[in-house]
Design goal:
heterodimer; A: 225 residues; Transcription Regulator spoIIAA; Pectate Lyase C-like; five-stranded mixed beta sheet; 6 helices; B: 264 residues; alpha/beta; Rossmann fold; eight-stranded mixed beta sheet; 8 strands; 42% helix
């Protein structure tokens, strides 16, 4: 083998191919060198890792992970065993991780989103203000609007159809959740202005049987989310 | 203290130039020293509305390119000696000037004038970027139509991104009869969508067409509701509290009352 350590990356993580014969201490040095070379590329990345080419003991594995944690800014989420090393598995782990992040954390945005403005968010988002026609919010998690939704909202942008969109005044042009799109009824813009409600009527948009369903927020509904 | 105000809308044909001419003239009537700048390079018409086309020798591009001094390009108004126009160039395009040059020009004019009004071209491209470069304050002109309001909303977002804090709304060409019938958005409808302060509402008035064609702004004319509406906007720009005009009394009691008052 020309190189004692080969670092292969795929979409969800990296695959370390290790020399079988090299003494472990020396191998560790080589791994460290390899990671230092590519430090910039992997900066602050959250990845899955797998080992190949050499049977590692539990202690050795931990020692390598420790090395990575101490010397680089890479965040290793999980180790994938050689036997079931499949990109699919990586994908699940990573997607779950990001999904948990999206489900449990969120950001705030205060102000009116106006035509032409796009707000993107890797987590859930709470907007304090209106989303006007022509504006767009894209969130990997849920979208909560304390104001009117008159533009476009796209929740669960990573593909999660269990996400939801709520607004105090729900009058969207389009809502997309996961891969499901719902659009407003065919009526002119004037119609929605003339028929607008004078009172706040909080509603929630969810995916139900492959369609976007908008209904009033009830206690029961909130408990079922 | 001088203030630079850009008059803008996004959509064309909603009354930016008419508003600039009338507000500028109105501020001059209130004894402010005012300069109007037409930033619509290639499609100039503020000079026509002001009736000053025949006096143009130098223009905005000449000033920026150093072909003349600012003073040489400024045209004094026919009626008000404290009102000036810096016309735009007709044979050039928007790329002849950049935002830095506009800002420098406007800052030079600040030393001389109380109010600098910039008539912005339609659109959001370089002409718009030039017009807002040196502005402290913006008047958004819109008509009560969904297309104009959609564009105004986009413009407000862009102005906010440029950190122009004082952004106020003029609803132009209101027709109260249509509002009453439920066929046109009311001032409240427009305000609810745009969510910015209203500085005035101007009724649809055929006198405006006549005055524009004659090249004489009608601000302050008591025969016309639109003229009064523009006068009120000028007072509000100066920070005075003026109640909104009753747009339904079409040349009614109030006009006659003012007429009597004038005679005394």
């Amino acid at each position: 083998m020309s190189q004692p350590v080969i670092l292969k990356s795929n979409r969800y993580g990296i695959n370390l191919i290790l020399d079988e014969d090299m003494p472990f201490e020396q191998l560790e040095e080589a791994i460290l060198d390899k990671f230092r070379e590519s430090e910039k590329f992997f900066k602050n990345a959250s990845i899955a890792i797998s080992f190949e080419g050499r049977a590692l003991s539990r202690e050795e594995e931990l020692s390598i992970l420790d090395l990575i944690a101490k010397n680089t800014s890479i965040h290793v989420i999980c180790v994938v065993d050689q036997d079931e090393m499949r990109e699919q598995l990586y994908k699940e782990k990573i997607d779950n991780y990001y999904q948990n992040v999206a489900d449990n954390t969120g950001e705030f945005y205060k102000g009116t989103l106006r035509s032409g403005q796009v707000l993107k968010c890797d987590t859930s988002i709470v907007i304090i203000g209106d989303v006007n026609p022509g504006a767009k919010i894209i969130a990997k998690g849920n979208i909560v609007i304390l104001g009117s939704l008159k533009g476009n909202a796209y929740a669960g942008a990573a593909g999660d159809e269990t996400c939801f969109v709520t607004a105090l005044d729900m009058d969207p042009v389009q809502i997309k959740i996961g891969n499901v799109i719902g659009r407003s009824a065919d009526r002119g813009p004037w119609e929605s202005i003339r028929n607008r409600k004078r009172t706040m009527d909080p509603q929630i948009a969810l995916v139900s049987d492959g369609n976007i369903l908008i209904e009033p927020i009830t206690k029961g509904l909130l408990n079922s989310i | 203290m001088s203030e630079v105000i850009v008059v803008t809308s996004g959509k064309g044909g909603v009354g930016k130039t008419t508003t600039t001419a009338n507000v500028g003239t109105g501020l001059a009537q209130l004894n402010k020293k005012v300069v109007l700048i037409d930033t619509d390079i290639g499609l100039r018409n503020l000079d026509v509305v002001m009736g000053l086309e025949n006096r143009i020798v130098y223009n905005l591009v000449d000033v920026v390119e150093g072909n003349c001094r600012i003073k040489q390009a400024l045209i004094k108004d026919k009626k008000y000696p404290n009102l000036f126009l810096l016309p735009s160039a007709q044979t050039r395009d928007k790329t002849s000037v950049n935002p830095e040059q506009m800002k420098k020009l406007v800052d030079e004019l600040r030393e001389e004038f109380d109010y600098i009004l910039l008539d912005c071209p339609a659109g959001i491209e370089q002409g718009f970027q030039n017009a807002i470069a040196g502005a402290d304050r913006a008047l958004i002109v819109t008509t009560p139509e969904v297309s104009a309001i959609r564009d105004a909303d986009r413009i407000i977002g862009l102005l906010e991104a440029h950190e122009i804090k004082k952004v106020e709304l003029i609803v132009n060409r209101l027709r109260m009869d249509m509002v009453k019938r439920g066929d046109m958005m009311s001032i409240e409808d427009v305000q609810e969508i745009l969510a910015i302060d209203l500085i005035g509402a101007v009724p649809d008035d055929e006198q405006i067409v006549i005055s524009t064609n004659q090249g004489e702004p009608l601000v302050g004319s008591h025969d016309s509701l639109a003229g009064q509406a523009y006068e009120n906007i000028c007072h509000r720009i100066l920070g005075e509290e003026v109640p909104l005009l009753d747009l339904e009394s079409k040349g009614g009691v109030w006009t006659k009352f003012v007429g009597l008052f004038k005679k005394n």
